[in-house]
Each structure stands twice: as C-alpha cells, then as structure tokens.
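Hello again, I could really use a second opinion on something today. For a while now I've been wondering how a particular protein folds. Please have a think about how the structure follows from the sequence. Here's the protein in full, and shout if anything looks odd to you:

***
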Amino acid sequence: MNITGILIAISTFLIIGVFHPIIIKTEYYTGTRLWWVFLIAGIICCAIALMVEDIALSAILGVLGATCLWSIKELFEQKERVEKGWFPKNPKRKT
C-alpha cells in the first residue's frame, strides 16, 4: 500500500491551514513590510525541493515554497481586507 499521496494531501492541508493565521497576524503586527521574508522562504523551499530525492519530502517542500510565495499576494490582500473593515486594524501600529 502506498500512502505517499495521502501524506502529501494531509501536509498540504496543514500547511495552508497554518498559513492563514500567519498572514493575518503578520499583517496585524507588521503590515506588509515583511513580504520579502515570504519571498526568501519560498525560494529556499522550492530550491531545496529540487534537490531532495525523496518524492514525498520534495512535494511537501514544494507545497511549502509555493504557499510562502502565494502568501505575499495574500498579505497585500489582507491589508485591503483590513482597510475595508473586514478584519481589525492594529491601533498600536502607526503605518
């Protein structure tokens, strides 16, 4: 029995689920100025995924990298959602 597909699916679900609150908290505390952290993390994860021989680990790293890169877009969209009043704005943050 091969459970690789199920492992990748569960990992993808968990990675995406974890990144939702990370984006919300990142925008709340720092705004969009840390977008570059997601860029670097995404590039590193994708590069490592290319070098790893294990298919499952490579796929999980690829998903993690793609999620980091997608998070840049989501971070800026979260800023728009805050401006629309859909999410709370951090009153302590000046910019």
The helical segments are 4-30, 35-51, 55-83. The chain has a mean pLDDT of 94.
